[in-house]
Amino acid sequence: MSRECRIALEALEHIVAHAREARPAECCGLLIGSGTTITEAVRARNASQDPNRFLIDPQAHIEARREARGRDLEVLGFYHSHPHTLPEPSATDLREASYPDHLYLIVSPATDPAEIRLFRLVAGNFLGVPFIAM
Ligand SMILES: [Zn+2]
């Protein structure tokens, strides 16, 4: 287990809405905040040609980092959706995760309420991170 995180309720709602809109394709975006607190979720274009995968548009990623820094915030991690399956990291997710110590949030919009899980990439593995909405 990794340190508990806090996520703004507004950010969670934004992620769920994005995931529902993008269905049946996967959606993705960035998690912005500071320390262990995620205050915002920013949508990114899914640059993957495959609707069952996600690739955050690199330009959007660079711009989000710059924009966050300008407000003394940082990109803490990423979110994506699993339109048809549980919010567990897939083998592909692990293979393509390339930001150590960043947070990876997965949302499953198939259920109501949507199921959300948070992980941190530590030493090449996803560790579950408990979180509370605020
Ligand atoms: Zn995935």
Brief overview:
The protein is built from 3 helices and 8 strands. Strands 7-6-5-4-2-3-1-8 form an 8-stranded mixed β-sheet.
How are the elements arranged and paired?
Elements: E1 5-7, H1 9-22, E2 28-34, E3 37-44, H2 58-69, E4 74-81, H3 91-96, E5 103-108, E6 115-122, E7 125-128, E8 131-133
Parallel strand pairs: 1-3, 1-8, 4-5
Antiparallel strand pairs: 2-3, 2-4, 5-6, 6-7
The site of zinc ion has 5 residues, from loops.
Give the helix proportion (percent range): 10-25%
What's the CATH architecture? Answer: 3-Layer(aba) Sandwich
Tell me the distance between the termini. Answer: 20 Å
Strand order of the largest sheet: 7-6-5-4-2-3-1-8
Largest sheet: 8 strands, mixed
Order of helices and strands: EHEEHEHEEEE
CATH homologous superfamily caption = Cytidine Deaminase, domain 2
Average pLDDT, rounded to a whole number, is 94
Bound molecule kinds, no repeats: zinc ion
- The CATH topology is given as Cytidine Deaminase, domain 2
**Class of secondary structure makeup:** alpha/beta
Secondary structure tally, helices = 3
Contiguous runs where pLDDT drops below 50 for at least 5 residues: none
